[in-house]
Design brief:
By secondary structure, this protein is an all-alpha fold. Helices cover 66% and strands 0% of the residues. The protein is built from 20 helices and no strands. Helix 13 packs antiparallel against helix 14. The chain is elongated. The protein starts with 55 loop residues before the first helix and ends with a helix.
């Protein structure tokens, strides 16, 4: 083998997201470590468990040593073939020498970041030897290093088909399936790897996540614990405990995660939830702020923070964060509707009329059936003496069954 894959406990990567992506891992050639990678579905395990690469000179020296020792470059004189078998063995030796040389040359090219050249060499070899596992494994890593996640995944799938017990191929193929949220297939493949006796912490982590997604909570806990002291495993365990109502255990687990990485998004977000449920609003706000800093583009933290700021009477900051949430691509449509209604109400309460009208108009354009937007818009117009326009807004608000009663009361109160 040309590479040493190290999955020891201390090889955790950057934290924060629990979405799984279907991209391929870092490619270990020389000192180049190019990680590919959001679920913030759920997570990118490869960011937490990366291969450690060898120094390129060590790689080359190791390859040559193995290559020479195995006889690919010719054996010592005492082991030379007899004249009777020279033609037959010479042909076999030539084939071995050819494939080994191609793999060696491709390795050197990849070490020099010539990934397309390396891929071309390996594909040429695979046309002659389509079942060459070593060439396929190397090609998968070359594709990953070159940023071609799809080709890397499909190549690993070929390796997994040819060698079902190959732990690296099983993991990479499973990761690709996880990126497509095919959790049943992920679980089946990881259980098979365990049955072969080849599973390690990578597989347990992926299996734990799949089990959690499928609702097999007991199984998820078992395998996440087997994944060891890995940040992502701790985060998933914390989520599992929180989901089961074991808030004290969840709190301890999330705090343990923050000891390793104070900026872990999920840990901070859930500690905010836990403290809010205990009416510790200032503590909850601290954790929400940390979660928002960890992932400014995720709506959960910013909406939780805005809602809490509203509850403690900080209208100005609540408006600021509600408005910011509307700029996020990942804010769900159902939440955007609520945000517009909350924004218009807060602006009405703060007599922020100049800001209210454009926001209300934009919200009504996006959600023409949202009675709450029209109701508070009408209230602002009524308070400013524009009764005709106010009645028009209350009439529109009354079309929404949830706001009909209040809207009609306001409509008929205007003389």
């Amino acid at each position: 083998m040309l590479f040493i894959m190290d999955y020891s406990d201390d090889k955790t990567g950057p934290a924060g997201h629990y979405r799984m992506h279907g991209s391929s891992p870092a490619f270990a050639f020389g000192m180049r470590m190019e990680g590919t990678g959001m679920i913030r579905s759920i997570m990118d395990i490869r960011n937490y468990m990366r291969p450690r690469c060898l120094n390129p000179f060590i790689l080359v020296a190791t390859f040559l040593a193995v290559y020479l020792f195995s006889g690919c470059a010719g054996g010592p004189p005492s082991e030379a073939p007899s004249p009777d078998t020279e033609e037959e063995t010479g042909e076999i030796g030539q084939d071995l020498d050819s494939s080994g040389a191609v793999i060696f040359d491709a390795t050197v090219a990849a070490q020099n970041s010539q990934f397309k050249t390396a891929a071309t060499m390996l594909m040429g070899l695979l046309e002659k030897e389509p079942d060459n596992i070593e060439a396929l494994r190397l090609l998968a890593r070359v594709y990953a290093a070159d940023g071609n996640a799809s080709a890397s995944s499909s190549t690993w799938e070929k390796v997994a088909t040819l060698s079902p017990s190959d732990p690296d191929a099983a993991y990479e193929a499973g990761s690709a399936l996880a990126g497509k949220e095919k959790w049943n297939e992920v679980r089946t493949r990881m259980l098979s790897t365990e049955a072969y006796g080849k599973a390690d912490k990578r597989h347990y982590l992926l299996l734990g996540q799949a089990s959690l997604e499928l609702g097999y909570n007991g199984e998820a806990e078992k395998y996440l614990l087997k994944a060891g002291d890995v940040e992502l495993a701790e985060v998933l365990l914390g989520k599992l405990y929180y989901k089961k109502g074991k808030t004290q255990l969840a709190e301890r687990t999330f705090k343990k995660t923050l000891e390793k990485n104070s900026g872990n998004y999920i840990a901070n977000l859930h500690l905010g939830y836990i403290n809010y449920s205990r009416n510790r609003k200032e503590v909850a706000l601290k954790y929400y702020r940390k979660a928002h800093r960890a992932d400014p583009d995720d709506p959960l933290a910013i909406l939780s923070m805005a809602s809490l700021l509203e509850k403690i009477g900080n209208r100005k900051d609540a408006v600021k964060y509600y408005k910011r949430s509307l700029t996020l691509r990942r804010t769900p449509v159902s939440e955007r509707r609520k945000v517009y209604i909350s924004l218009v109400r807060l602006m009405l309460e703060g007599k922020m009329y100049n800001e209210l009208y454009p926001v209300a108009g934009k919200g009504a354009g996006e959600f023409p059936d949202a009675g709450g937007i029209y109701f508070y818009w009408g209230e602002a117009l009524r308070l400013q003496g524009n009764n005709k326009k106010a009645r028009e807004m209350f009439n529109k608000a009354a079309r929404d069954p949830a706001w009909k009663k209040h809207a009609l009361e306001r409509f008929h109160s205007i003389r």
